[in-house]
Each structure stands twice: as structure tokens, then as C-alpha cells.
From TrEMBL, chain A:
It is a lipid-anchor. Residues 1-20 form the signal peptide. It is found in: Cell membrane. This is Peptide/nickel transport system substrate-binding protein. It comes from the Bacteria. It comes from Aquibacillus albus. Residues 132-532 form the Solute-binding protein family domain.
Automatic annotation (TrEMBL), chain B:
It holds the Pfam family BPD_transp_1_N. PANTHER family: INNER MEMBRANE ABC TRANSPORTER (PTHR30465), OLIGOPEPTIDE ABC TRANSPORTER, PERMEASE PROTEIN (PTHR30465:SF43). The chain crosses the membrane at residues 9-29, 101-125, 137-163, 195-214, 257-279, 299-321. Belongs to the binding-protein-dependent transport system permease family. CDD domains: TM_PBP2. Gene3D superfamilies: MetI-like. It is found in: Cell membrane. This is Peptide/nickel transport system permease protein. InterPro entries: BPD_transp_1_N, MetI-like, MetI-like_sf. It is a multi-pass membrane protein. Residues 102-318 form the ABC transmembrane type-1 domain. Keywords: Cell membrane, Membrane, Transmembrane, Transmembrane helix, Transport. It comes from Aquibacillus albus. The lineage of its organism: Bacteria, Bacillati, Bacillota, Bacilli, Bacillales.
Length: 660, 332
């Protein structure tokens, strides 16, 4: 166990060093303040801290008072047993208690904005996202053929209301919530293993070993199981003692509906979804998070307060989190996030690269620093053609690789990067960025050279030689070759104007349509989009395949093929040719017995995307901007910013602190 | 008079039924429904919904039924249980949502209205009495500027000045420290500070219009025979002004009371969004955008009731104010 940990830690160190090197070679302007200090911090060898070596614990003054007045037990009793306490590494320095983190959010239906940074998964991703590390779980053992995962929990760990957290909470979640589908989600794909012979899916079995150990048994090898759980189902547990008081299975349908009405819900289903899935905004529900809800999320300010039973400490034994409250302040328009950041209403926020100039200009005055967190996007300016578009003429065109190449070389990427990304992005094709799984040599330069002659030649070769008096190419039936690009966001207007101009230069007529998000989503789900600008973003196709492999409805480039798979062939269109190969490779990947084999098939999927370039990109990926007040410390200079890694949560906000 | 009022009230009922049907019909007209909107919202946050999940959600919310069936369900609950349904967006009863924003909406509206009347009527009278004087020109110029400048732009300009000079764009109605605090003098003062921009912004537009109306009306009235007669009988100028022409000039202000009443309850919308004010306008706007049918429906119904009610009140007030109208109603 220990040996593995050391190997693991040194790997982390190595990788973090590598990412740090890569980051600086990108040549992006980083803030000057505290730069040296941070690089030093990263170079310093990580000392492995044995949790049981910490002799005494410290706690926030407000908790000390509560202990003294006898309202809560002492810190030793609140934390897990000494050897099971989790020691969190601090990024810069050991912090002090006090202050608040204040972020903007859109209100109670924006639950992920507070959900992601406060999330405590069973296993979390390490710094570069290449593997998972223990979090809520203390560790795991896996047998040789990756069918049996024994997962160890932390003894003495408690929910935020002081009730012990045990394997029963995992079993309860599995037996009474997830497999019963009480909260509107079906059992996640991670829990299924695939028979390599027949392709049949088998659901795993979850059994309790003792109070702090449980076992997940798959029928067939499932080497990616822990990573996939870390993405699909981060919280593989729920407070049994709370849910027993509301689930219809325990209180009866009638009583459950009564409780739902009492809580203000229209029906039991939406009540169970709000309590079982989006649970963290409910004051009544205990969690394992560093901060727990303390008031109505519909308030103008939603305040999450320090969890006195939080189970992480720093290496000096200070119980985390350092910061008192995690506050989400309601904004009605995205621009308020910027205004509030400038005005000092917020001390932490995430922004898009479009805001870079304004943020940088005000860095001094507003006393914050702009951190560039690399994204896992394929590109920052995408044109996504719907491969299953209904119009017959257009479908055979977009499925033709020459057409895609023509559209790709018809555009001057240098101009796009200058105008759309302020020159931050590179003039390259949509591809997997370096440093991520699936990166392919030469992909980024594929069809990236601006060459309108070549585009014209390709379009002629396809047979679109006839033109009308406006110079637009015609199909055989005499209708104009027209592409309607629909977007839900005016932010892409500049980019689309450029694209329209370039496409029309080579004779492809473009209509640009801006619609509201509801209409967009309606068209997306009904296969009415011809083309859009949705930016593909993938951490690892083996872990979250939807974007690259047609498995489900909802991806603009292949939704109709995805629907075919999702509905078991009842709806949608059967994929053919290379797209069908994507699905074949995915099926093989799921049935693979080792991680290496799975990666081989994943690589095949990436190669197919490289070869066919279904997703076109006109500017390289740009980083996400994380803005932190200068008084808010321990915010990492850079981490991959991805939903899979929980965005800012990847920086471990429990160890952020306010330095006066 | 009483008979007139009664007849008006009875006429209100079919109007409201018609309005509510139209409202419901219009809300569901745009493509998609709440579920597609929800899916879009969740997709933006990184969560994808499957077709199955969406269908199930639709069935739970009755969205798979014909809109008229949904309307009948809704009406049934309103009439039998006085239950206006649930807001999808907020996941709570519509009345709870409206209730939450009501107090601040009314505070903002009343203070703005008071500001408008207190500023507009005196200025209007002044520029009519002293028309073509320098004061009149200044008032008219400012009035026209106020009318021509879009509210939200003015809001942005004022926020900019506030940020540049005080380092705080004064968003919302409270500072962080008072947001969740109980009412105290400190909180009232904080609110007052934050109210300056909204009142100026929301108030200016209507003030400008009102000044023009007041001035125009008074100019019409000020040379009428009754005023000339009063003056010839030796009444003081101020007595004449307030007794006859001003009273008549108030007529258009009173007759637009119908709209004013519903405005009081919604507050402004665009300006409120720009200024991040927690009042009804933006809530309503988001309900329409998100196809939150019951919330939007209840709101529009409520507005219709208020408009009808407001018109009724303004008719009664007019009768009280204007003897000519009074006799007409009595005669009818």
C-alpha cells in the first residue's frame, strides 16, 4: 500500500513538473506577482506526510468556541481516526482561518457552479488528470483481471451532521437509490462490464465487507472502472440516515408525497431529483463537503458554511477548510460577473478568453490575478457539420471528406486567431492538444494551410462545377449549395462573419442564424441543425466518449447516429463507413481486459477522427481564465480546466485561504 | 355610479378568461418547451441528458399533453384550490416565487413613482407657466434627453461613473454584508445608497414624458375662458393655477393609471437586469425565456387583472376629477 503511494506520488511530481514546463513554453503572458515563489513551490519535493504522525490538530476559532460551549465534539472526535485523516497538500503555504470565497452564480438552477468546486468524489483525478487518487475513499485494491475492486473508506469519518460515514451509506445509495433510479438517472455506464464475446452488458455487484470496506465485482474486466466512476458518478454514496426519512420505499408513497409538498415541490419525482441528485443546495441534507448549505439557494446570496466534520487537514494538522464561507452571489447577466470582479464583490471567478483584455487591464486596480488554466478543447473556433443532416444534397456533401477539406483550407486561420482569440490561439486545425490522451503527430496541421485555390479545386472535383450569377455553386438539381450555421450565442458573431465571407468566396452560400438556447436545444434534439459552433471538449475518449463516438443524442455532429445507438436501432440513422467504425472500436474498448488494450482502441477512435476530421477548427484552444483576488491564496497557477476534473474544484478550494 | 362599477366588474371576468387562454397559447408557441430549455441549461454546465431522461421529465411535468389540456389542469387548480401551479425553474410554488420578490419590487416601484411625480409635475407646471423662459428650455432639454436615452444605457453610464469614482458599480440592492442580515438602520442606509441609480434611471424616462404631457396640457388650459374669468375676478395667480388648469391637466396622468398599476408590481425589466435588481421584472423575463409556463402564465394573468383593475380605478378617479365625465356616467 505504502510503496504504491510513493511510486504514485513521485509520478504525480514528475507529471506536474512536466506540465509546468509545458505551460511556460506556451509563451502566454502570466501575471508577474508571485511568479517566482510559485515555481519554487512546484519544484520543492513533495514530502509524504503520514497522517498518524500529526501529533495534534487545530481548528477554526469559531469551531473552538462551539466546542468550548459543548455544542460540538472536539476536533479529534470530529476527524476520522488518526491514520485515516486525509492530509491535503497546500499549493503555496499553510493558510490561516477566516474570510469568505465569493463567486457569482445565476441562481438556484445554476447548482453546478457551486457543486463542482465543493465536490468530494470517492476518487478524484490527480493534477494532470492521468490517474485517480483516493479522496473520500482511503484506497483500493484490485485483482489481476480487473473484475474485483475492494475499496477502503476512512474509519471515523462523519457526515456534516456528525453521523458516521460507513460502507452502509455506499450500499444504501447503490441498493435504494441508484439501482432503483429514484433521482431520474439510470445506472451509470461505469457500473456495467461488457462480455467480450457477445457484447452483452452486465451490471456490477456491490457488497459490504465490513463497516469501512466494500467490494465492487464486475462479471468481466473493467480496467477503467475507478476513473469512470470518478467522472460518471463522483458521489457513490449518500447519507442513508437522511434518505430513509424521505424515500417512498421507507416512508410510503403517500407520506413521501406529503413531504414533497411540504418542501414546496410539485411531485415526488422532482423532489427526489432535487434531494438525491442536486443535493448540495439543500440545507437539510448532510454532505461530506468542505462547506455545506446554510440558507435558501433562492436567496440573493447563497451561503455555504464550514463543515465542522470535514475530514481533511493540512500537514500541520489544521483542519480544513481555511475559509469560513463559500458564498454564491446571484447575478442576472453574465456581464455582472465581470463587473463584480472589478468592483471587488467577488474574489474568485471563471471567465472566457474574450474577457482577457478587460481583466488584464484592471489587474492592478482591482487587485486580482488572472490565471490561465489550459482547456481540454479541440479548438476555440469550431464549425461542426451535422453528418446526419436531413437534407439529402447537403448530407452527401458534408459526408464527403473532400468537402470538409475544402471548407477547412478555404479559411485563413491567421486572421481568425487574431480576431477571435486576440492572437492567443494558434492557427491550427481542431485536434487533441499536446499533453492529453489521444494527441496525434501532425494532426493540428492537417488542412490548416490557407489555400482557396485548393478549396475551389476540391469543390470542382466533387462535381459542384455549376455556379449561379452570384458565384454560388449549384447542386445537380439546380439549387444553391447553402449551409445554415445556427448558434445560440452572439459571442460567435465575429467568427461566423469571417467564416461566411471565406466560405462564400469559394462558392458555398452561408446563412447565419442566432436563436435562443431553448430553440437551439430543440433543433439539436430533433436533428434540424445543419452546422453549428459547439466546441468539442474531451479529456479521454475512453472515459467520456459521447463527444467523439455516436452513442447518444445531443452531439451536433452525429446526434442522429447517436440516437440510433441510444434507442437500440428504433430511431435515428444507422451509422455507416468510418462513423460505424467509431462505434465498433468503442464496443471493443468497453470489452477490453486491460487498460493498455482499452487505450489501443481509444487510439483507433482518435485516429479515425484525425483521418476524417469531422470536426473542423480554425483556431487552437485557448485557456480558461480563473481570476482570483490577490488576497485569495493557494489557487494553483494552472490546472487543466475541464468539467471532468470539476473545473476550479481541481485546484482544491478547501486549501484556499485569505491572506490579509 | 355603483351600478356602473358593478357592470364593469362583471365584464372583467370574460376578459380575464380570454386573456388567460391567449397567454397560455402564446407562451407555448415558441419551439421547444421547458425540458429543452433545461437540457440546454444543463449542457452549458456540463451535464448531458439522455432522450429517455428528457421524455420522463416531460411526462412528469405533463408537458407531453396538448397545451389546452395543460391549461385546463392549471385553471382547475386555480379555481378549486387557489393553486397557481409550480414553477419549473425554481422548483417551488409559483406564489412562493412571486412572494419572494414582491416587497422589494413594491419598494423600488413606489419610490420611483414618487420621484417621478414629485419631479415631473412641478417642473411641468413651471415650464408651462414660464414657457419659453430659460428655465423652460433647460427643463425641456433635459426632458428630451431623458426620453431619448435608453434606460439601460443610462444605467450603464451611471454604473461606470460609480465604479470609476467610488470603485463600486453598485450592483443589486444590498452590499454583501447586509444581504442576508436582518433589517436595521445600516441596512436601510445601504439600500438607500443602492437605490439612487435605479431611481434616477427608471424615474427619468417617465419623468421626461410626464413633464412634456403636463406642460402641453397646461398650455392648453391656461388660456381657457374660465381661467381668464377667474383672473378678471381678481383671484390670486397661484389659486387660479391650482384650482382650474392644473386639475384639468392631471386628466391624462390619471387616465394612464391602468398601466401604472401593473408597472408598480413588475418594476422595470431591462434596467433591472442591467442593474442586477432582485425584483419581479427579470423573474418574469426569465420565466418567458425558459418557458416556465405556470410562472409566466400566472404573472401575465396577474398583470391582466391589474391592468383591468387599474383602468377601472382610473375611470372612477377621472369621474371624481372631471365633472364632465361624471355627468356622462350618471347619464349613462
Amino acid at each position: 500500500m505504502k510503496k504504491r503511494l510513493i511510486v504514485f506520488l513521485s509520478l504525480v511530481l514528475l507529471l506536474s513538473f512536466l506540465t509546468a514546463c509545458m505551460g511556460s513554453s506556451e509563451g502566454l503572458a502570466t501575471s508577474e506577482t508571485g511568479d517566482e515563489q510559485e515555481t519554487e513551490a512546484e519544484k520543492e519535493p513533495v514530502e509524504e506526510v503520514d497522517p498518524s504522525s500529526i501529533s495534534s490538530y487545530n481548528e477554526a476559532p469559531e469551531l473552538k468556541e462551539l466546542v468550548e460551549s459543548g455544542k460540538i465534539p472536539s476536533v479529534e472526535e470530529r476527524l476520522p481516526v488518526a491514520e485515516d485523516v486525509m492530509v491535503e497538500e497546500v499549493y503555496e503555504e499553510t493558510g490561516v482561518y477566516g474570510g469568505n470565497i465569493t463567486i457569482p452564480w445565476k441562481g438556484a438552477d445554476d447548482e453546478w457552479t457551486v457543486g463542482k468546486p465543493t465536490e468530494e468524489p470517492l476518487f478524484r483525478f490527480n493534477e494532470d488528470g492521468s490517474r485517480v487518487e483516493p479522496n473520500v475513499a482511503k484506497g483500493y485494491d484490485v485483482n489481476d483481471d480487473a473484475t474485483e475492486f475492494t475499496i477502503y473508506l476512512r474509519e471515523g469519518m462523519k457526515w456534516s451532521d456528525g453521523v458516521p460515514f460507513t460502507a452502509d451509506d455506499v450500499l444504501f445509495y447503490w441498493e435504494h437509490m441508484l439501482t432503483k433510479e429514484t433521482f431520474g438517472k439510470s445506472v451509470y455506464d461505469a457500473y456495467f462490464s461488457v462480455d467480450p464475446e457477445t457484447g452483452e452488458r452486465h451490471m456490477a455487484e456491490v457488497t459490504k465487507v465490513d463497516d469501512y470496506t466494500f467490494k465492487v465485482t464486475h462479471k468481466f474486466s473493467s480496467p477503467d472502472f475507478l476513473k469512470r466512476v470518478a467522472i460518471d458518478n463522483k458521489w457513490f454514496f449518500a447519507p442513508a440516515h437522511f434518505h430513509k426519512t424521505i424515500l417512498p420505499e421507507f416512508v410510503g408513497e403517500e407520506k413521501a408525497s406529503e413531504i414533497a409538498t411540504e418542501w414546496g415541490f410539485a411531485d415526488v419525482k422532482s423532489f427526489l431529483k432535487a434531494t438525491g441528485y442536486y443535493y448540495w443546495t439543500n440545507v437539510e441534507i448532510p454532505t461530506l463537503r468542505a462547506w455545506v448549505a446554510s440558507n435558501d439557494p433562492h436567496s440573493e446570496e447563497f451561503v455555504m458554511k464550514r463543515n465542522p466534520y470535514y475530514w481533511k487537514v493540512d500537514k500541520e494538522g489544521n483542519q480544513l477548510p481555511y475559509v469560513n464561507n463559500f458564498i454564491a452571489k446571484k447575478i442576472q447577466d453574465p456581464s455582472h460577473a465581470m463587473l463584480g470582479m472589478l468592483g471587488g464583490d467577488f474574489n474568485l471567478g471563471k471567465f472566457l478568453v474574450q474577457d482577457f483584455t478587460v481583466l488584464k487591464e484592471n489587474e492592478q486596480k482591482a487587485d486580482f490575478r488572472v490565471l490561465l488554466w489550459p482547456s481540454v478543447n479541440f479548438t476555440s473556433a469550431a464549425i461542426v457539420l451535422n453528418q446526419g443532416v436531413e437534407d439529402n444534397n447537403l448530407r452527401s456533401l458534408v459526408q464527403n471528406i473532400k468537402f470538409r477539406e475544402a471548407l477547412s483550407v478555404a479559411v485563413d486561420r491567421h486572421e481568425v486567431t487574431e480576431i477571435v482569440t486576440n492572437g492567443i490561439g494558434e492557427p491550427i486545425q481542431a485536434s487533441v492538444p499536446e499533453g492529453l490522451v489521444g494527441h496525434q503527430e501532425g494532426w493540428k496541421d492537417q488542412w490548416a494551410e490557407f489555400n482557396p485555390d485548393r478549396a475551389n479545386q476540391l469543390l470542382d472535383e466533387i462535381g459542384l462545377t455549376e455556379k449561379n450569377s452570384n458565384g454560388f455553386r449549384l447542386y445537380e438539381d439546380g439549387s444553391v449549395v447553402t449551409l445554415t450555421i445556427t448558434d445560440q450565442n452572439q459571442a460567435s458573431a465575429e467568427f461566423l462573419e469571417l467564416v461566411k465571407n471565406y466560405y462564400e468566396n469559394v462558392g458555398v452560400k452561408v446563412n447565419i442564424k442566432f436563436v435562443d438556447p431553448g430553440t437551439y436545444s430543440d433543433q439539436l434534439y430533433n436533428n434540424q441543425l445543419q452546422a453549428t459552433t459547439a466546441i468539442p471538449s474531451v479529456v479521454n475518449v475512453a472515459l467520456r466518449p459521447d463527444v467523439l463516438v455516436p452513442l447518444r443524442l445531443g452531439q451536433p455532429w452525429q446526434g442522429d447516429f447517436g440516437l440510433y445507438r441510444e434507442s437500440n436501432g428504433e430511431e435515428g440513422t444507422k451509422p455507416e463507413g468510418e462513423i460505424a467504425k467509431l462505434v465498433e472500436n468503442w464496443d471493443k474498448l468497453r470489452a477490453a481486459s486491460t487498460e493498455e488494450k482499452a487505450m489501443e482502441y481509444a487510439n483507433e477512435i482518435y485516429k479515425l477522427h484525425h483521418k476524417n476530421q469531422w470536426l473542423l477548427g480554425y483556431a487552437g484552444p485557448t485557456p480558461s481564465l480563473v481570476v482570483a483576488a490577490n488576497s485569495l491564496r493557494n489557487v494553483p497557477e494552472e490546472r487543466f480546466f475541464a468539467d471532468e476534473f470539476r473545473e476550479i474544484g481541481h485546484g482544491h478550494p478547501a486549501q484556499f485561504f485569505i491572506k490579509e | 355610479m355603483l351600478k356602473y362599477i358593478l357592470r364593469r366588474i362583471i365584464l372583467v371576468i370574460p376578459v380575464l378568461i380570454l386573456v388567460s387562454v391567449i397567454v397560455f397559447f402564446i407562451i407555448q408557441l415558441p419551439p421547444g418547451d421547458y425540458v429543452t430549455h433545461f437540457a440546454a441549461e444543463m449542457a452549458a454546465q456540463g451535464e448531458t441528458l439522455t432522450q429517455e431522461e428528457m421524455d420522463e421529465l416531460r411526462a412528469t411535468l405533463n408537458l407531453d399533453r396538448h397545451w389546452f389540456v395543460q391549461y385546463l389542469f392549471w385553471m382547475k387548480d386555480i379555481l378549486l384550490h387557489f393553486d397557481f401551479g409550480h414553477s419549473f425553474n425554481y422548483d417551488e410554488p409559483v406564489t412562493a416565487v412571486i412572494d419572494r420578490y414582491m416587497a422589494l419590487t413594491l419598494i423600488v416601484s413606489f419610490i420611483t413613482m414618487a420621484f417621478t411625480y414629485l419631479v415631473a409635475i412641478p417642473i411641468g407646471i413651471y415650464s408651462a407657466v414660464k414657457h419659453y423662459s430659460i428655465g423652460d428650455y433647460i427643463a425641456s432639454t433635459i426632458g428630451f434627453l431623458g426620453m431619448a436615452t435608453p434606460n439601460f444605457l443610462l444605467a450603464i453610464i451611471l454604473m461606470y461613473f460609480s465604479y470609476v469614482n467610488f470603485g463600486d458599480p453598485l450592483l443589486g440592492l444590498f452590499s454583501s454584508e447586509y444581504e442576508n442580515a436582518a433589517w436595521s438602520w445600516g441596512k436601510v442606509w445601504d439600500l438607500a445608497k443602492h437605490m439612487v441609480i435605479p431611481i434616477i434611471v427608471i424615474g427619468t424616462a417617465s419623468t421626461a414624458g410626464l413633464i412634456r404631457i403636463m406642460r402641453g396640457q397646461l398650455l392648453d388650459e391656461i388660456n381657457k375662458p374660465n381661467v381668464v374669468t377667474a383672473r378678471s375676478k381678481g383671484l390670486s395667480e397661484s389659486r387660479i393655477l391650482f384650482k382650474y388648469p392644473t386639475r384639468a391637466a392631471l386628466n391624462p396622468i390619471v387616465s394612464t393609471f391602468g398601466w401604472t398599476l401593473s408597472n408598480i408590481f413588475t418594476g422595470s425589466t431591462i434596467t433591472a437586469i442591467v442593474l442586477n435588481l432582485p425584483i419581479q421584472g427579470p423573474v418574469m423575463y426569465n420565466a418567458l425565456l425558459g418557458q416556465d409556463m405556470y410562472l409566466a402564465g400566472t404573472w401575465l394573468l396577474f398583470m391582466a387583472i391589474l391592468t383591468v383593475l387599474g383602468t377601472l380605478i382610473s375611470d372612477i378617479l377621472l369621474a371624481w376629477l372631471d365633472p364632465k365625465i361624471r355627468t356622462e356616467i350618471k347619464g349613462g
